[in-house]
Amino acid sequence: MLVSLPQVRPTPNPLAKEIAILGGGITGLSTAHNITRCIPNAKVTIYEASSRLGGWLNSELVQVDDGEVLFEWGPRTIRPDFGGAGVATLDLVRMSQSP
């Protein structure tokens, strides 16, 4: 059964010139991406407490005898709430699959 997903929130204020996003996890990054699509001339700044972006998403390249292996960790869970950040995440996934 296919579920019809609602559209991402209405377009943010098109007159916004400077936008701050708190947190560089998947939600913060997808928010920044969507805002830059909606308001291309706005300056978007992401504030992240840790030394890297990605939140619970991470990759590590480990050297082994025959070369190297890439280990990837995902978030604890991505559960779309069909109306909030989950919709923005699904939108990002859809865009990454477009030709």
From TrEMBL:
Pfam families assigned: NAD_binding_8
SUPFAM superfamilies xref list: FAD/NAD(P)-binding domain (SSF51905)
GO MF term set: oxygen-dependent protoporphyrinogen oxidase activity
Taxonomic superkingdom: Eukaryota
GO cellular component: mitochondrial inner membrane
Family annotation (InterPro entries): FAD/NAD-bd_sf, Zeta_carotene_desat/Oxidored
Record protein name field: Protoporphyrinogen oxidase
Organism expressing this protein natively: Exophiala bonariae
Biological classification of the source: Eukaryota, Fungi, Dikarya, Ascomycota, Pezizomycotina
